[in-house]
Design a protein that fits this description.
The protein is mainly β. Helices cover 8% and strands 47% of the residues. The chain has one domain (2-122): L,D-transpeptidase catalytic domain-like (Beta Barrel), CATH 2.40.440. The mean pLDDT is 94.
Length: 126
Amino acid sequence: MQLQQSSQRWIEIDLSRQRLIAWEGNTPVYAVTISSGKPSTPTRTGTFAIQTKHRVTRMTGDDYDVPDVPYTMYYDGGMAIHGAYWHNLFGNPVTHGCTNVAVNHAKWLFNWAAVGTPVVVHKSQI
């Protein structure tokens, strides 16, 4: 992977392991357990980049309306990495497609990553 051969900051989301790793080149600097999309609303795989960042935002969909979502970083249309204060099911795919992390981890990631930071979402063989 080219990102590992640079000194660039990037984020890896491993859907199979429900893990997010923040990298600086080939050095992991932070790792957290996530909740990704459930089978009916899966998290898309691919290589993206953080498009916008919001300290607090409201997220709405057909069957949800969540105010005050903390430390949100959109990387693929409506898909984002963000803090989740409404559940503690990390390690399980339970979301509408976003990548949920605990609020304290979301804050760290929000402060570390910039708009343009690559986000690589994949499934691995366990």
